[in-house]
Amino acid sequence: MCTPWHLVDHVVMPINVKLQDHWICGRLNIAERRIYLYNSLRSGRYMTAAKEACKPFSVILPYYFSMLDFKGLRNEAKFSTMEPFPIVAVDGLPEQVTADCGVFVASFAEYFIDGKPIPSSDFDVEIHRDRLAVLFYQYGMKKQTENIESESEAPPSLPKK
Fold first, then answer.
1. 25 exposed, middle or buried (CB, 10 Å; 0-12, 13-18, 19+)?
2. Secondary structure of residue 9 in the 3-state scheme
3. Residues 25-69 pLDDT 10s
4. Which of 32, 63, 68, 127 is 20 to 30 A distant from 94 in Cα terms?
């Protein structure tokens, strides 16, 4: 079940940095009108490309919020502006050494959702990769054994009369 955006303060999203064949984690802070950028590649070239990948979200989200009347839904005047959302790069994150950006994105999102700080050291990508693999395997097995369909896999429901 999806929660409407006007009822939440944060939206976590994976963002593809196409030119670098890299994934980053973006976190939209609706209350602050900012996009936080979690990038596991910290060099200047990758950071510039990551900020460029976030820019379309930064520009289009104010229009999206205007169309949805966020100003009225949240009773906050700051949603009447069409100024792009500032993009803030989060510092002190662990850095990837090999092509592990997907593991970093999933882990960054998980740390945020669980309300835990992201460790700048003591981040063993192998442990995170193995743990995620086990979680995905268990989820897949549960779906098979209990015949569970994900919302996106379920047949469309008929409109109510």
1. buried
2. coil
3. 999 998 888 999 999 987 888 889 999 999 999 999 988 888 877
4. 32
pTM above 0.90, yes or no: no
Question: Do the beta carbons of residue 86 and residue 58 sit within 8 Å?
Answer: yes
Q: d(Cα 161, Cα 156) in Å, to the nearest integer?
A: 15
Q: Is 77 in a helix, a strand, or coil?
A: helix
Does the CA dihedral 146-151-154-159 come out positive or negative?
A: positive
Q: Rounded distance, CA 77 to CA 148, Å?
A: 43
- Nearest-angstrom CA–CA distance, 96 and 125: 8
Contact 15, 87 (CB under 8 A): no
H runs (alpha helix) in the chain = 44-67, 70-74, 101-114, 125-145
CA-to-CA distance for 86 and 54, rounded, in angstroms?
Answer: 10
Return the residue matching tokens 């100003």: 71
